[in-house]
Amino acid sequence: MGRLNDLAALGQAVWLDFVDRKFLAEGGLQKLVDEDGLTGVTSNPSIFEKAMGHGTAYDEALAEFDQTHPGAPAMQRYEHLAIQDIQAAADTLRPVYDRLDGKDGYVSLEVSPYLANDTDGTIAEAKKLWAAVDRPDLMIKIPGTPAGVPAIAATIAAGINVNVTLLFSIEAYKAVALAYVAGLEQRVGKGEAIDRIASVASFFVSRIDTKIDDAIDARVKDGDAESEALKAVRGKVAIANAKLAYAWYEAFIASDRWQALAARGAMPQRLLWASTGTKNPDYPDTLYLDTLIGKDTVNTVPPKTLDAFRDHGTAAETLTQDVDGARHTLAEADRLGLDLTGVTDTLVEEGVASFSSAFDTLLGAIAAKHPETAN
After folding, report:
1. Which of 288, 270, 271 is nearest to 279 (CA)?
2. pLDDT string in tens for the chain (375-residue length)
3. Angstrom distance (rounded) from CA 131 to CA 248
4. Which of 39, 78, 135, 300 reaches 20 to 30 Å from 11, CA-CA?
5. How far apart (Å, rounded) are the C-alpha atoms in residues 291 and 284?
6. Spatial separation of the C-alpha atoms in residues 136 and 119, rounded to whole Å
7. Pair 41, 108: CB distance under 8 Å
């Protein structure tokens, strides 16, 4: 039993923010499940672009698909490969899902990033991917954009597990948490079961500090009169933001509205900390794991950060520590004009654009493997 296993005792699940055919085939995921207590996997367009767009690991499966689907467009070819990987990961995690009675053991597959601002398109794609993968331990990833919020409610109402992605602000998180509840309530209203429906809300962390710290560093360099106060909140805003999101979660699950659903077996929508690889070399490489450990949460971790925590991370219940200090940090950020709201709005737009760009590159690479199908 190592440090990663210790997190389960504190109520936090560890998921891997990575998927790759060779890694799955060679038993890499199974090893993490067996040795580190890993209980989930997440994917996104950028991860699939790195996996499929380079090397030859997918060529054989693609050639087989092309024989039976000559002239298939790049999107269809991508989906075929992605669904195979997600099914393999889901099958590896199925014993975890069964052992934990559906409370964990999930793998996530994202809807097309091109649909981030298309509610009806997102709902249709979520249903299509859910049926195609055909695994109970699947979560469909839907971005928490304004268009994504009603899509989340509708997808939950349809009985599909949802991983809400690209959340940066507490207000956006509240909206998707309420969408999850609305979807469950729709099912209750129709007399349908809600006890096997799971959801997580993926709250991104390190990217906030990257933006805020860049603004702080620029002002300090220019000799800002508030330089000392600015330096005092450097590297602290993202963690404070996450802690206050969790404080809202704790208050909400104690509410009468949630308790009425819990009485029917509803599972809480866990907060999932995403973007937890440390991007600033000045900070500890386990910063966004060590500081965000708490009950009913998930941390989805890239392989390098997973290795770092296994080696020298600190397993302690930190998420509920010094919440008043977190409030002070955000109040200071506001007083200093660091514009957290503007930063989080920008990060959502950049996240959608980044995933769309990765998807463009991925589809181009897949099409190029057999140019005659590039349509």
Report:
1. 288
2. 689 999 999 999 999 999 999 999 999 999 999 999 999 999 998 999 989 988 889 999 999 999 999 999 999 999 999 999 999 999 999 999 999 999 999 999 999 999 999 999 999 999 999 999 999 999 999 999 999 999 999 999 999 999 999 999 999 999 999 999 999 999 999 999 999 999 999 999 999 999 999 999 999 999 999 999 999 999 999 999 999 999 999 999 999 999 999 999 999 999 999 999 999 999 999 999 999 999 999 999 999 999 999 999 999 999 999 999 999 999 999 999 999 999 999 999 999 999 999 999 999 999 988 644 434
3. 34
4. 135
5. 11
6. 24
7. yes
Three-state SS at 32:
helix
Rounded alpha-carbon distances, angstroms, from residue 292 to 2, 128, 169, 251: 18, 34, 16, 18
Run of H or E including 232: helix 227-233
Gap between the Cα atoms of 231 and 218, Å rounded: 11
> Which residue in this structure is represented by tokens 């060590």?
290
How is residue 336 written in tokens? 């200093």
Query: In 299-319, which positions are buried (b, 16+ CB within 10 angstroms) versus exposed (e)?
Result: bbbbeebbebbbeebebeebb
What is the per-residue burial (b if ≥16 Cβ within 10 Å, else e) of 231-261? eebbbbbbbbbbbbbbbebeebbeeeebeeb
Comparing C-alpha atoms, which of 122, 127, 186, 131 is closest to residue 151? 122
User: Which structure tokens are listed for 263?
Assistant: 């009485």
- Say whether pTM exceeds 0.85: yes
Match 């649909």 to its residue by tokens. Answer: 115
Residue 27 is encoded by which pair of tokens?
């038993």
DSSP 8-state symbol, 373: G
Encoded tokens for 362: 């991925």
